[in-house]
Amino acid sequence: MLFLVFYFILFLVLIFQGTHVAGEVKSPLGTVPEEVGQGSLASARWGLLLIGTGFLGGIIGLLGFRWTGLVALRHPLMALGLAVLALFGLWVIFVGRKAEFIGKPTATDGHGHH
Known about the structure:
Distance between the termini: 68 Å
Number of strands: 0
Number of helices: 3
Low-confidence stretches: none
Radius of gyration: 20 Å
Largest sheet: none
Order of helices and strands: HHH
């Protein structure tokens, strides 16, 4: 029973994270500066992958209560969901957000060096 709690929480997280990532492309929340924003095409693809994986796991998990043959798919889908979430996390940390520095000073220094 405890497995099912974590199973459904994982796929709800995937759905919510996917809708956030896909929605950030169309209407940014402005939580990070534009210089650190994500690429729109890659974010949309990640959003669709997360949403699709979340709904697939959730539907198979719920249908497993009706058809017991689908219960065997829960463990592989849990592993798939964790792998997708881990890859998304690595993409966000290492690839997705690249800082593009503008190169202009933030304050003008009219006095020169002190």
